[in-house]
Amino acid sequence: MLGVAAVIVVAGCSPSPSDGSVEVQAAGDQASPVASPASSPAVTTPAPESTPKSGRVRIAFGGDVHFEGSSAGALDGDLGTAFGQLKSADLAIVNLETAITDRGTPGPKQYTFRAPAKALDVLKNSGVDVVTLANNHGMDYGQVGLLDTLAAGKSTGLPIIGAGKNLRAAFTPFTRTVKGVRIAVFGATDVLDSFAIGTWPATATRPGLASSKDQYEELLLDAVREAAADSDVVVVDLHWGTEQQACPSDRQQELAHALTEAGAQVVVGSHAHVLEPHVREGNTTIHYGLGNFVFYAHSAPGTDTGVYNVVVDKDGVVRTTWLPGRISGGRPQLLSGSAAKAASAQEDALASECGIG
């Protein structure tokens, strides 16, 4: 398995928070305040009610984040009202679709993204607990940019998954125990430019990203199986799909099925820059595309966004809630009233329109 057999790492324990939960987390990480989601029109898929064997944990997911163009204004610390949901969640995760560096050489591609280290401080202060760098922009400025990004994450205390100084590090999940629920979170990319397929994925001796393409798929599945043996809930955040396509591809559906078979209860993703459907089956959930989040989108459907709340306990997913939003000035703002109801209905209908679920 190319050395991934030992990827499951549990970090040191921190003092118990005031609600009585015990957390195990990456060095330098801090828990988000625990609070109930704000009341807002939303699409909710309840699971059959039962007495949980542990506390219930709310995980909040946002889509693609960079700080280019109009979204650069978010560096002032105002990331939009959607971040209220992330800050109040027990655990909040977004896809960091940019290098954090002022060095390096841009890759041979049309769009390259980078942002200052301040971006990580802004995300952390706004409630983000972990970011995945596993995407087709994570190494836009080469290995120099990647190493700068990893160093900035360590300095800021914002854990970065889906990338590392070698294969083992790239496939190591973020782990945390909240309210007695042991959670492991992976990041991986199924999308790479042709020039990057042979050079961006990490190897035993090369820094890079966690990939799910080709031979790397089995490495990811093995890592998920190992995490499932030691965790109650396994989350996989993927970069996948086809840009501007709202319906998930056959590849997305096949990979999602393989991951849930391996033991993942929550599979979410991004890359299409439009919203894709979410589906529930038993104690698992899949959101195929969270869309843009902090992004320079200027018109629909690219400005359609939202927060995906997933409540879990030791048995897996208890319920899911989609809170719709719209990007304005590069920042995600939650919708309310009739606009929220219409956007929720549109998102809820996607699964049947795409013939899945």
UniProtKB/TrEMBL annotation:
- Bilayer-crossing residues are none
**Biased composition, class Low complexity, residue ranges:** 31-52
Q: Which InterPro entries match?
A: Capsule_synth_CapA, CW_Biosynth-Accessory, Metallo-depent_PP-like
Q: Where are the residues of the annotated region Disordered?
A: 16-54
Give residue ranges for domain Capsule synthesis protein CapA. 58-297
Q: Note the superkingdom of the native organism.
A: Bacteria
Instruction: Tell me the PANTHER family matching this sequence.
Output: PGA BIOSYNTHESIS PROTEIN CAPA, POLYGLUTAMINE SYNTHESIS ACCESSORY PROTEIN RV0574C-RELATED
Entry similarity comment? Belongs to the CapA family.
What name goes with this protein? CapA family protein
